[in-house]
C-alpha cells in the first residue's frame, strides 16, 4: 500500500514536471518567433538572410540601419522589459498572496512615472537623468509603502490599501504636472506614460539587461522561500523561513527590475498584472512560475507591439494594446473576488 502511494506521488510529480517543461519550452519558442518577427517586419519586410547578414556586421544599404538602429533595440527593449515586468509582477502576487498586489496597482510604477514626468516636463532633463530619477523614485516609493504597512506586524491588506492610496496621490501629482507644464513638453511625457518601445536605443539598454541578468538568479534562488511565503506568515515562520529578510530581498530584486524596466520603456500597462496568473494557469502547481511568468511577459509585450504597429490604420504604443488586454481582466478579477468576499 505504501509503495503504491509513493508510486502515485512520483508519477504525479513526473507529470507536473513534464507539463512545466513543455509549457516553458512552448513559451520560449513563441518568444523566439516574436523576436524574429520584430526584426523581419516593418515598413519594409526583409528576408532572414538579409537580417542575419546585417546583425553579423555586414553593411547592406537600408537593411543595416533599419535592423541594427531601429528594430534590434526595439526588440531587445521589449524582450528584457517584458521579462522584468512579468517576473516582478509574479513575485509580488505570490509573495503577498493577492492577484491585485502587483507593481502597477500598489503604486511602484506610479512613483517611477511621477519622477520621470517631473524630469521631462519641469526640469527638461535628458534621457539618462529621467532613467535614474525613475529608478530612485520607484525604490523610494516601495520603501515608504513597506514601512507604512508594517505597523506592529506586516499586513498584506494594509500594504495593498496603502499602495493604492499612494498610487492615487502620485497619479494626481502627474496630472497636475501635465496640467501646468509647457505645451511643447507634453508629447514626450505622454509617450513615456503610455509605455512605448519607440525610440529605444542600444546604448540605453545595458542597465536593463544587467539588472535582469543579476536579479533573476537572486529570485530563482529564493523561489522555494517565495512558494512557502504563499502559504502564509505563520506557516512560513514555522518552516524556518526568515520572512522579513526573505521578503526584503524579494522586494529589492523585484523593484530594481521593474524600476529599471519602467525607466527604459515607460510603464507598460498590465504586463506585470497579467503575466503571473497566465503563467500559473499554464504551468500548474509544483514548480516555480518565475521563468514562465517572465516568458509570458515577453510574449505579451512583443505581441502587443506587433499588433500596435500593424493591426490598425494608425500605430499605437505597446502600452495602449496591453491596456486594452488587461482592463477587462482586471474588471473580471474584481467581480470574482467580490463574489467570493475577498474584497
| Global shape | globular
Mean pLDDT: 84
The helix-strand sequence is HHHHHHHHHHHHHH
- The count of helical stretches stands at 14
Structural class: mainly alpha
Q: What would CATH call the homologous superfamily?
A: ABC transporter involved in vitamin B12 uptake, BtuC
Specify the biggest β-sheet. none
Which percent range fits the helix content?
over 70%
- Report the top-level CATH class: Mainly Alpha
CATH architectural name: Orthogonal Bundle
Structural domains: how many:
1
Low-confidence blocks of residues: none
Q: Which assembly state applies to the chains in this document?
A: single chain
- First-last Cα distance: 44 Å
The total count of strands amounts to: 0
Cα gyration radius (Å): 21 Å
- In CATH, the topology is named ABC transporter involved in vitamin B12 uptake, BtuC
Q: Which helices and strands, and how do they pair?
A:
Elements: H1 2-40, H2 48-55, H3 63-95, H4 108-121, H5 127-150, H6 156-180, H7 186-194, H8 206-221, H9 223-229, H10 233-238, H11 243-265, H12 271-283, H13 290-310, H14 318-339
Helix pairs in contact: 1-3, 1-13, 2-3, 3-8, 3-11, 3-12, 3-13, 4-5, 4-6, 4-7, 4-11, 5-6, 5-11, 8-11, 12-13, 13-14
3D architecture notes:
The structure is a single chain. This protein has 343 residues and is mostly helical. It is 76% helix and 0% strand. It has a single domain (79-339), classed as Orthogonal Bundle (ABC transporter involved in vitamin B12 uptake, BtuC), CATH 1.10.3470.10.
Summarize the structure.
By secondary structure, the protein is an all-alpha fold.
Amino acid at each position: 500500500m505504501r509503495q503504491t502511494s509513493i508510486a502515485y506521488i512520483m508519477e504525479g510529480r513526473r507529470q507536473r514536471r513534464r507539463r512545466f517543461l513543455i509549457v516553458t519550452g512552448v513559451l520560449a519558442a513563441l518568444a523566439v518567433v516574436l523576436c524574429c518577427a520584430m526584426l523581419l517586419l516593418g515598413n519594409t519586410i526583409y528576408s532572414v538572410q538579409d537580417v542575419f547578414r546585417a546583425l553579423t556586421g555586414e553593411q547592406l544599404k537600408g537593411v543595416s540601419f533599419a535592423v541594427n538602429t531601429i528594430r534590434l533595440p526595439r526588440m531587445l527593449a521589449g524582450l528584457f522589459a517584458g521579462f522584468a515586468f512579468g517576473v516582478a509582477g509574479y513575485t509580488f502576487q505570490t509573495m503577498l498572496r493577492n492577484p491585485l498586489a502587483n507593481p502597477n496597482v500598489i503604486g511602484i510604477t506610479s512613483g517611477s512615472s511621477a519622477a520621470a514626468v517631473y524630469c521631462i516636463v519641469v526640469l527638461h532633463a535628458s534621457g539618462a537623468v529621467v532613467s535614474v530619477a525613475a529608478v530612485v523614485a520607484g525604490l523610494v516609493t516601495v520603501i515608504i509603502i513597506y514601512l507604512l504597512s508594517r505597523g506592529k506586524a506586516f499586513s498584506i491588506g494594509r500594504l495593498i490599501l496603502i499602495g493604492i492610496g499612494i498610487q492615487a496621490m502620485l497619479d494626481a501629482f502627474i496630472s497636475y504636472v501635465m496640467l501646468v507644464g509647457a505645451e511643447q513638453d507634453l508629447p514626450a511625457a505622454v509617450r513615456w506614460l503610455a509605455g512605448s518601445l519607440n525610440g529605444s536605443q542600444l546604448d540605453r539598454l545595458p542597465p536593463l539587461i544587467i539588472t535582469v541578468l543579476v536579479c533573476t538568479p537572486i529570485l530563482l534562488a529564493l523561489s522555494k522561500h517565495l512558494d512557502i511565503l504563499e502559504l502564509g506568515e505563520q506557516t512560513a515562520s514555522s518552516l524556518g523561513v526568515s520572512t522579513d529578510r526573505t521578503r526584503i530581498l524579494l522586494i529589492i530584486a523585484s523593484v530594481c527590475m521593474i524600476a529599471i524596466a519602467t525607466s527604459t520603456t515607460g510603464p507598460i500597462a498590465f504586463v506585470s498584472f497579467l503575466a503571473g496568473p497566465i503563467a500559473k494557469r499554464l504551468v500548474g502547481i509544483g514548480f516555480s512560475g518565475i521563468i514562465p511568468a517572465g516568458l509570458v511577459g515577453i510574449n505579451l509585450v512583443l505581441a502587443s507591439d506587433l499588433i500596435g504597429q500593424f493591426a490598425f490604420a494608425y500605430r499605437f504604443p505597446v502600452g495602449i494594446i496591453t491596456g486594452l488586454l488587461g482592463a477587462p481582466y482586471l474588471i473580471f478579477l474584481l467581480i470574482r473576488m467580490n463574489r467570493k468576499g475577498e474584497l
